[in-house]
Specification:
The protein is α+β, with helices and mostly antiparallel strands. It contains 25 helices and 24 strands. The strands form three sheets. Strands 1, 2, 3, 4, 5, 6, 7, 8, 9, 10, 11, 12 and 13 form a 13-stranded mixed sheet that branches. Strands 16, 17, 18, 19, 20, 21 and 22 form a seven-stranded mixed sheet that branches. A four-stranded antiparallel sheet has the order 15-23-14-24. Helix 16 packs antiparallel against helix 19 and helix 23 packs antiparallel against helix 24. It is elongated and about 100 Å long. The two termini are about 40 Å apart. The relative contact order is 0.11.
Length: about 775
């Protein structure tokens, strides 16, 4: 065995360039593949840390052909009491419609993202690990709270918060009962704080016995067949509540992460399968590129060692020994690359994690499966890369080699050419996909939304500010730098709620399901919406209280020939605004009503006319001062509406960035392989180049001769890549209601980019070879 290692290290000295290219290229590829593998594992095994993952279901409501991930409040208890097959049931409620939600410790306040009200049985259904404290029946008390590790650290630092008291939204003192560990990276449920339903009515005015309001998530566990149970549930609900139109269905907890029904699923993080499959394809493509790269260079360098092998054959070495040498060398290089990749993974993990929509947990790369997978890929690549040259070169006849006809022309090897074609096809596909995602993100960012999102700031109000909102509005509207101010319960980019209203169409009473928002005066002017029919709400008048302004889609959907003065839900329609995208561009514009009312607005919106960070900062300070003067010890977080809009597409922006990096490295790996291959091909043809130059060939003619084959392979790769990229991108664009066009120039740009990279790689070496003195190549002949 020692002889194999001696020959291996001797060979490394002879083929330093090929070895370096193989090591660096394969280690980079393996690093990227393992990062993507962790991401894919999290996505496909979302929520599987829950002990009841296979027996937990969410109740979803179908109302008027639309499915909601929500139910009425009594559903959980109704299921538990009426069906012995159900082991546990629990409600969850996220007050997304509310104003600013914050916790105060001593004199410092902290904004809370996604607080959730839950029943005590929540902890029997879900298996979030505890860091400190313990969940007891005390959680049924309304003065208790459970924090996540992230929020506990933000509020209390390194202190143990269990038993300590925080003030919630400036109202009640809550005792910290327990702290949950940092939510697992593969948790699709996201929250920072859990409150008991016992305290629900301290912060909300909803009737928990009402069956009309679809606002709560209901989960249950059962060991029975859910398909049989759901038919019983729908039958019994019809008996108990015959006037209700709602039907119900069960969605397994394990399927929620990839559920497309996510508009009102505030608590859960969703991912589209097309995006996940896109990264899976990218991982396969990079692995494919790396293996081809490794295989091509292994074959190329092996072809230069035929004389050495023939001498060893004459001295008694058998084919098995020669074959084993090729395979062992390939495995050793691959395993060395895997060690290098493990170092890269450890160093670059934080960078990759930040690129994802959901950060990964560092511990995930320190588990046995990770290193076993990395080692297996390396071992398999080494075996595959070693077998082919072993079979090909170990059986060449001795006289062929010793007559100095041993060089195997790589350019004539169809297998190598085919591998190179598919390698660049994969790279071109990644370039096209990246360019299209960039185009779609730019399309979204520059899309006319129907309102002016620039220079608008807003902040959420707590109950104390809501009570003083009229005084605050009056003061802010006279402030220098403020053009208009208004209040609403939602701002564009947030999930607008839906409701069923009564509409009089041509003298006939009908019900309609619409999006709605409640506003104060100046809302239309503050957002700069275009009023195309009727009028705006009258200023400082009670005449328009509970009247409506609707959008164009509302008029079209309900076929209102003369919408103005149409009676509607206790008021009437007084105006029609041009459609605007109040939701993200993932969704089409729905029917919307804007209602003028005195209460329920939780956000204050300001249109400003200042520019420059210094002026903006000064305006922010002035707003804070006005609020503090009216409501002392108040707490607000002023935000830009533009940031809220961009946040809707953060996931796509991160995909674009990540895919851009992956495409760069894919091209880099392919180019490194091509460079090594070109150098070896030129070395094989160096005497041919010398003879051509002696016979009068120009440098340009020699370069064309050396470039033509490689460029032909790139052209074939482009033809293969284009339809694959077209189908992949088209599938991904299905996630958007508004999408860019599949422009031909992107395909052309990707093809030209790959061609330019290949041309630069090949031409540099071709030029160097063509400029050499032919005497140097022919002096031994």
């Amino acid at each position: 065995m020692n002889i194999y290692f001696k020959l291996f290290f001797r060979g490394l000295k002879k083929k330093k360039l090929a070895t370096v290219i193989n090591l660096v290229g394969f280690s980079i590829a393996l690093t990227l593949i393992m990062f993507i593998a962790v991401f894919l594992k999290n996505e496909f095994q979302a929520d599987n840390f829950h002990n009841n993952i296979n027996s937990t279901y969410r109740v979803e409501s179908e109302f008027r052909a639309k499915i909601y991930p929500l139910t009425a409040a009594p559903m959980a208890d109704w299921l538990k009491d009426g069906f012995p097959e159900i082991n546990e049931s629990a409600r969850m409620f996220s007050p997304f419609y509310k104003g600013l939600i914050y916790a105060t410790l001593e004199d410092q306040s902290f904004e809370i993202n996604k607080p959730v009200f839950v029943d005590p049985s929540f902890f029997q259904i879900f298996s979030f690990p505890l860091k400190s404290g313990h969940i007891t029946k005390d959680f049924e008390s309304k003065n208790t709270v459970v924090l996540t590790e992230q929020l506990a650290k933000k509020i209390f630092g390194d202190e143990n918060p269990v038993g300590k008291v925080i003030k919630y939204c400036g109202k009640n003192d809550l005792t910290v009962l327990a702290v949950l560990e940092k939510l697992p990276a593969n948790s699709s449920m996201e929250f920072e704080l859990l409150l008991p339903f016992a305290s629900f009515n301290d912060y909300n005015s909803f009737d928990l016995t009402n069956w009309d309001r679809l606002t709560y998530q209901t989960f249950f566990t059962t060991d029975k067949d859910p398909n049989i149970l759901i038919s019983e549930v729908n039958r019994k609900i019809k008996e108990d509540l015959p006037e209700k139109e709602t039907k119900y269905m069960f969605l397994p907890l394990k399927d929620i992460h990839f559920s497309m029904n996510s508009e009102y699923d505030i608590i859960f993080r969703h991912e589209s399968k097309s995006s996940v499959y896109l990264f899976m394809i990218v991982a396969i493509a990079i692995l494919f590129i790396a293996i081809i790269n490794f295989l091509n260079l292994t074959v190329a360098t092996a072809s230069l060692r035929i004389k050495e092998n023939m001498v060893r054959k004459i001295e008694g070495a058998g084919r098995m020994q020669l074959s084993l040498q090729y395979i062992l060398e390939a495995i050793l290089i691959c395993m060395s690359a895997s060690i290098l990749a493990a170092i890269f993974v450890e160093l670059l993990f934080p960078v990759f994690s930040n690129l994802l929509s959901t950060p990964l947990n560092h511990i995930q790369i320190r588990q046995p499966w990770f290193y076993i997978s990395m080692g297996s890929i390396s071992l398999l690549t080494g075996i595959l890369s070693g077998i082919y040259p072993a079979i090909k070169f170990s059986r060449i006849a001795e006289h062929t080699s010793l007559n100095n006809k041993s060089s195997v022309k790589l350019g004539s090897d169809r297998w190598n050419n085919m591998l190179l074609i598919f390698q660049f096809a994969a790279s071109i596909t990644l370039i096209i996909a990246t360019l299209f995602i960039v185009k779609q993100i730019n399309f979204i960012q520059n899309q006319q939304l129907g309102y002016d999102k620039e220079q608008i700031v807003y902040f959420r109000m707590d109950d104390n500010l809501i009570q003083k909102k009229d005084a605050i509005l009056e003061k802010l509207q006279t402030m220098p730098g403020v053009v208009n101010a208004s209040t609403s319960d939602f701002v564009p980019g947030q999930p607008y709620s839906q409701r069923v209203i009564t509409l009089n169409i041509n003298g006939e009473e009908k019900t309609a399901q619409i999006y709605h928002t409640k506003v104060s005066e100046n809302y239309i002017k503050t957002l700069d919406l275009e009023l195309i029919e009727g009028r705006d709400f009258y200023k400082t008048s009670q005449a328009d209280q509970n009247n409506f302004i609707v959008n164009e889609t509302f008029v079209k959907e309900y076929d209102l020939k003369n919408p103005l003065s149409t009676p509607m839900d206790g008021g009437e329609i007084i105006g029609v605004v041009k459609d605007f995208n109040f939701n993200s561009l993932h969704q089409p514009i729905g029917p919307l009503s804007i209602r003028l009312t005195n209460g329920d607005q939780t956000s204050l919106i300001l249109r400003t006319d200042v520019s420059g960070m210094k002026n903006i900062s000064s305006l922010m300070s002035n707003i804070q001062e006005v609020i503090s003067n009216i409501v002392p010890e108040s707490y607000i977080e002023i935000k830009f509406l533009n940031d809220q809009i961009q946040q809707q597409y953060m996931k796509e922006a991160k995909i674009q960035k990540l895919l851009g990096y992956l495409s760069f490295f894919a091209i880099f790996i392919s180019s490194m392989g091509l460079l090594g291959l070109v150098i070896l091909v030129i070395n094989q043809r160096i005497k041919e180049i010398g003879i051509r130059k002696v016979n009068g060939a120009k440098i340009s003619e020699v370069m064309i001769m050396l470039n033509i084959d490689f460029l032909k392979w790139i052209a074939i790769a482009f033809i293969i890549a284009s339809p694959i990229a077209f189908c992949s991108v088209n599938k991904w664009l299905e996630n958007f209601a508004y999408k860019t066009t599949l422009s031909w120039w992107i395909f052309a740009l990707a093809g030209l980019s790959a061609l330019a990279i290949a041309l630069l790689t090949v031409s540099w070496q071709s030029w160097r070879a063509a400029r050499k003195n032919p005497v140097e190549a022919l002096r031994y002949e």
